[in-house]
Structures are given as C-alpha cells and as structure tokens.
Amino acid sequence: MSFLRNSTRDYIDRGNEYFTQGDYGEALKCYRKALCLDKTLSVAYFNIANILAIQSKFYPAEQHYKYAIRYKRDFPEAFNNLGNVLREQGKLSEAYEAYKKALFFKCDYFEAYNGLGNVLQSEGNIEDAINSYRKAIDLNPKYQIAKSNLLLCLNYSSNIKLQNIYEEHTKLAESIEKSVKRFKRTNPINKIKDKIRIGYLSPDFRRHSVGYFIRPIIECHNRDDFVVFAYSDVITRDTFTDEIERMSDHFIDCARFNENELYQKICDDKIDILFDLAGHSGYNRLTIFAMKPAPIQITWIGYPNTTGLKTMDYRIVDEITDPIGMTESINSEKLLRMPYCFLCYSPPKDAPIVEKAPFLKNGFITFGSFNNLSKINDFTVDLWSKVLHLRNDSKMLIKSKTFIDKGVRDRFLKRFQERGIDESRLILMPHVKSFREHLDVYNSIDIALDCYPYNGTTTTFEALFMGVPVITLSGNSHVSRVGMSILTNLFIEGLIAKNSDEYIKISSNLISNPDIIISLRKALRGILMNSILVDKMAFTRQLEEMLKKIILT
Predict the structure, then answer these.
(1) Torsion over CA: 268, 269, 271, 276 (sign)
(2) Band of the pLDDT at 183, cuts 50, 70, 90?
(3) Whole-model pTM?
(4) Torsion sign over Cα 127, 129, 131, 134
(5) DSSP assignment of 124-144, as one string?
C-alpha cells in the first residue's frame, strides 16, 4: 500500500507540474495514470475536472467533480468548482446547492460566496447577489474577482445612487493600483511617427457581444495610418477568434501570460493606444492597465461604467448616453463622445426574413425580452407587469438559457404571479440551437420591452433588425440611456420613455394602434440597415479621427 500511495502521489505531483506549465494534455495523462492505480483517488478526479473546466468542457467537468465528491464527501473545493461548471451550463438551482455545500464544509469560503452571488445575479435577484459579494469581500478584502463582480452587479440595481456606485468603483480601482508595481515606460508616444499602433485587449474575441461589436472596427481600420494589435485573453478559442486573428496585423494569444509578461509584451510592441474591452466584467485585465504599459489607455464596449482607474485616460461614449454635464462627475476617465452612437452594429448575413406581426395570426399582443435575467430586476418586473395588465389577453415571451432549470423558471414565474400575472401569460424559452433560430424567435414577438436601469444593447439591435419595436426607459446613467441612443439615431424617439408612466403610455398606444406595429414591422430593418448605426467604415473613420486628435494633444 505504501508503494501504491507513493506512485499515485508521484503521478499527481508530476501532473501538477505540467498543469502549472500549461501543458494540460500531459497533466491529464498523469492524473489518469494515478486513477489506474487507485480509482477512488478524489484529488485526481478533481484535477481532471479543473482542466476540463478550463477547456470549457463543462459537462465532463461536472461528472469528474461529482466523482471527486463521491470519494471524499467533505471536499469544499470540489463543491465550489462543481457550482461553477453547473452555472456555466445554466443549471443554477444545482449550482446554488453546490455552493451551499461548500460553505457547509468551509463556512469562511469566500469563493463560494462569490459563486452564490453569481447565481443570484444570473436570476435577477440583484440585492441578494450584492449582499453575497459583500460577504465574500468581508471574508477576503483582497479578493478582486468578487469586487469586480460586485461593481458589475451594482449596474443592475435600481436602488443605489449613482454617486455611491462611482465611489465603489474608485475604491476598488485604488486597491488595484496599489497592488501592482508601476514601471517606467521606455516608449513615450511619438506624435510624428507614420502609423499609430493600437492594441485591443479582450477576453471576448469569440462569439460574444463584445466580439461582434469590435470585429468591424478591427476590419475597417485604415492600415495607412494604423497598425492593429489584438491581445486575445480568450481561454477557449472558436471560429470567431480565428476571424479576429485574420483581420489583425498582429495577434497575440495572451491568456496564459501573467501580469508582468503581458505588460512587457505590450511595452515591447510599442503600443501608442491600448484599449480595454472588459472593464470590471469577467476575466478582465485591469491590473495591466493599472501598470500603464501604453501612453494612452481607453476603455470601451465591454463594460457600461467607469473603471475608476487613474491610469485609464479615456472612456468612449456618445452625446446621448453621456450628454455634456450629466456623467463627468461619475467617471474617472475623460469622456470621448462619438458624434452618433458609441457602437456600430454588424447585421448578420444569414438572417431569417421578417414575418408579419404575430398578433395578426394570434389575435393577441405578444411582448418580449431576450435580455439576460440579470437585467430583469424587481423594478423591471413591476414595470412589465403593469404593461401586461393593460390587456388581460396579452402575453410575454422571455428567452434565457437559464430557463433550462425548472427551479429558475418557477422562481421567475412567482415574481410575476406576486404582481397578479398568471403563469399562462408568460412564455419562457431556453437556449435554441443556432443564431439563426435565435433571431427567428423575434418573429413571435410584436413589441419588445427594454429593462431598467441596465438597457439592452445587442438584444435591442437584434429586435429592431427583426422588425420589432423596442420600448425603452431612459435615466441619468450610461446604462440607462443606451436604448435612447440607439432609437434616437434611428429617428424613432417615440419609443423612448422618460419615466414609468410614459413607458406604460407608449405601450398602451402601440396596443391601441396596431397599424403602427404593422408599419414598424415593415420598416424597421430598412431603417436600421440604412442608418449610421451599421456603417462600419464611417464609424471607424470617426473613431480614427478622434484617436488622431488625442495623440496630438
């Protein structure tokens, strides 16, 4: 038995060495050899599961975590990581229980509280999610992941003052800046060089909203004036990643770079302007920006608020999301306002046709939302319920991948039932197989309802492209004015509400005037396709002119 223990330990140790080096194939071989000697070796299953999770093979990872737990019941790390992969699959109820089990065996397990926060946020239970993140931070004040998750979650809340949200951002930013070493940069900006060297750093050069919005910009940059570097922090590549690589002048796969390695690479590349496309969202590299590897640093697209970093020079917005005098005091960066919208939409090439408004066939109005449940907070549920009460025969279709979980569906339905909306009036749809099928579901909706305060972005563009009018509620923050920016640039301001009463009034007006729905159904795709919002070349030239100006200042 002593020999057996030594042999399995040797394989585990060797596997761990390969894992540290990023050689997951060899690490897996070692862990599996250990299991050949002892099929009850919990740590081997656990380590295999960790690699599978990194590779986004979430279901096999789930099975291996469960094997680890079978042979070691008091294994909080396995329960926590099981929760992570369950959440990735949309199995939120099971994930919640896994995190609770982790906390049962380890009551001060701050990562598990962070996981609970992620589950609660994914269901739209924003206030409880905030409390869970704060618990994780209380247990470990240096836990930056929970701090960033908390900041993202604050954007979903309708109950917290904007100034308080800003102060939370600057507080975390200060801790990030204190945690890193600032080096003296050796590449000051050269204002008279032939070409400006631009770097885009993102974990989302993949099938993700950020990827869709940045791709046309990388493609259309004028190579006579700019050299484009794409720093890809993508853990699991897909075909979209390959497209970004082909479009870039230089593509750097930096997912396994540590902070110092990535900092040095950016310095060596002599980047003039470095873009952050993540902010405080998942897998961000704000520590890199705190180290200031480029003379000019700009945050854009990936996060709807300030980073709070003193080392982040600019943030790209537009004249509608952030009109002069409204949000400067709650941004640490100087605001660069695009003349139209701060985003450029890329319409899908293979899209379904826009069918007739479904109420013509159904005999009743169908409202809809494809936004993440995180955005559907209690304020939004209240607002939508009031809209549904306008017509007792109306229905609402809500699409979310998390609806594969019965517990999530039941809890979501209960929120509406508490407001007098019977479950028979709600159509809850989970994930569909393809993007084309996803777009085709819009043909089942007459009117899309936006969320507040965190407006939809990609979903708003998609709805309009599919001929579905979107009613939005605007506020005094960037996140609550994105819908307003999109609709204003399409000259359909009549769908923009300034308060809840207006939101309900606009809904009532559309219900009472079905001819307007029919007219919009026919016109919206054409309006969008002929607008500045999809003119990627014009948008990129506007961006480039802005970048040239700040280089010279």
Answers:
(1) negative
(2) low
(3) 0.93
(4) negative
(5) T-HHHHHHHHHHHHHH-TT-H
- Of residues 5 and 332, the one with the higher pLDDT is 332
| Within a domain: 281 | yes
Taking the C-alpha atoms of residue 435 and residue 391, their distance in angstroms, rounded to an integer, is 32
Q: Are residue 340 and residue 366 in the same domain, yes or no?
A: no
Pairing mode of beta strands 196-202, 273-276: parallel
202 neighbors 277 (Cβ within 8 angstroms): yes
CATH number at residue 112: 1.25.40.10
Say whether both 529 and 540 belong to one domain. no
304 with 432, same domain: the answer is: no
Residues 114, 217 within the same domain: no
Encoding tokens for residue 316? 């790209």
Please tell me whether the peptide bond between 60 and the residue prior to it is cis, using omega within 30 degrees of 0. no
CATH code, domain carrying 225: 3.40.50.11380
Same domain, 232 and 367: no
The number of folded domains in the chain is 3
494 and 372 in a common domain: yes
Q: Is residue 444 a contact partner of residue 358, using CB atoms and an 8 Å limit? A: yes
Structure tokens at 321: 């999301």
**16 & 95 share domain:** yes
* Nearest CA-CA partner of 492 in 484, 482, 481, 480: 484
Q: Is residue 287 within 8 Å of 310, Cβ to Cβ?
A: no
Quote the tokens at residue 348.
């899908």
Return phi, psi of residue 14, to 5°. -65, -40
Mind listing the pLDDT tens digit for each residue in 206-251? 988 999 999 999 999 999 999 999 999 998 889 999 999 999 999 9
Q: How far apart are CA 43 and CA 74, in angstroms?
A: 12
* Domain ranges, residue 15: 1-180
Cα diameter, the chain: 82
Residues 432 and 411: their CA atoms lie apart, in Å, by 21
